[in-house]
TrEMBL record:
Entry keywords, A to Z: DNA-binding, Transcription, Transcription regulation
Name of protein: AraC family transcriptional regulator
Keyword DNA damage attributed: no
PROSITE patterns named among the record's database cross-references: HTH_ARAC_FAMILY_1, HTH_ARAC_FAMILY_2
Domain HTH araC/xylS-type: start-end pairs: 203-301
Any single Pfam family the record assigns to this protein: HTH_18
Top-level taxon: Bacteria
InterPro entries: Homeodomain-like_sf, HTH_AraC, HTH_AraC-typ_CS, Tscrpt_reg_HTH_AraC_N
Region (Disordered): 279-313
Organism encoding this protein: Dyella lutea
Gene3D superfamilies per record: Homeodomain-like
Length: 313
């Protein structure tokens, strides 16, 4: 006899969809992640062990965990997301992140869809008015509903049929963005996309900082660039990013320095200069405060930790 309870039926369908999504993510994922191999805005990631705390810039994206759990630390707050919820980043946000649940038997698996901001702006004209909600910090974790899970799974399935992806992929992406707009984070996304809004002006300031982070920063010049007063820029920038523009620039510089030290042969002083520091000693002090150890020791520890994970995988 079939189960006539719609709640139980929906729960069973969601469980089936999560398992299928995990299977497909495991098929496509690589430790490096990255968009472009399967779809210009889709990326898949896998980890077989908990990771050391890493630093990265979260670009505007929806992230679904098919298996395991991860946490993001931004502004002193910890945002944990797993199979029951999704992470939404509406801005480019420097943050710390860490896979906290993963094993060879049950690896951490996730799918990321980078947000098409042009499509988002198109949808604003037809989407229903957003329910009252937070419009502050540009990152949030929300419960994953079956409709969103189903839409993301359908998009991932299309990888198997590239001809269908070319035609149906944009339609499913549109549905996913629509579901975000009418969901608990809809107000956050709307403020990000609406021309002339404070959040949109902050987005322009963020874009400028990402392109010019090596240059000396004058807040008055940045405020003029995005048509805001210096005090208004400082207030709204901190509301969205949990940091000041100067702190944001420092995060970008230090993250890039860590990447360079990990990936290239170069001394600390030259790397400090490349990311915009005039004083190597100031760079070393700020690097130590950020990552908990001086540059050379931090990179050595990080390489050892990542090497151990690779060897055990």
């Amino acid at each position: 006899m079939k189960n006539s309870n719609p709640l139980l039926a929906a729960s069973g369908r969601a469980t089936h969809d999560r398992r299928e999504l995990a299977s497909r993510v495991e098929r496509y994922a690589s430790p490096e992640g990255g968009c472009g191999r399967w779809h210009p805005r889709l990326a898949f990631y896998r980890a077989e062990a908990p990771e050391p705390r890493l630093s990265m810039v979260y670009d505007p994206a929806l992230v679904l965990v098919a298996q395991g759990a991860k946490q993001v630390i931004l502004g002193g707050e910890v945002y944990r997301y797993d199979e029951s919820n999704y992470l939404l980043s509406a801005f480019d946000l420097p943050a710390h992140c860490q896979v906290v649940e993963a094993s060879p038997e049950r690896p951490y698996l996730c799918v990321k869809l980078c947000l098409d901001m042009d499509l988002l702006r198109e949808l604003l004209a037809s989407a229903p008015a957003a329910l009252p909600g937070a419009t502050g910090l540009g990152l949030a974790v929300s419960p994953l509903d079956p409709g969103m899970l189903d839409a993301v799974l359908r998009l991932v399935r299309l990888i198997e049929t590239p001809d269908d992806m070319a035609v149906l992929g944009p339609l499913v992406e549109r549905e996913i963005l629509y579901r975000l707009l009418i969901g608990p984070q809809g107000s956050r996304l709307r403020q990000r996309a609406v021309a002339g809004s404070r959040s949109q002006q902050v987005a322009r300031a963020i874009d400028w900082l990402r392109r010019h982070y090596r240059q000396p920063l004058r807040i008055s010049d940045l405020a003029a660039e995005v048509a805001m007063s210096a005090s208004s820029l400082h207030h709204h920038f901190r509301t969205v990013t949990a940091m000041s523009p100067l702190q944001y620039q420092k995060q970008l510089r230090l993250q890039e320095a860590r990447r360079l030290l990990m990936s290239e042969a170069g001394d600390v002083a030259s790397v400090a200069h490349r990311v915009g520091y005039e004083s190597p000693s100031q760079f070393s002090r700020e690097y130590s405060r950020q990552f908990g150890a001086p540059p050379s020791r931090d990179v050595e520890q990080l390489r050892r930790s990542l090497g151990q994970q690779t060897a055990s995988a």
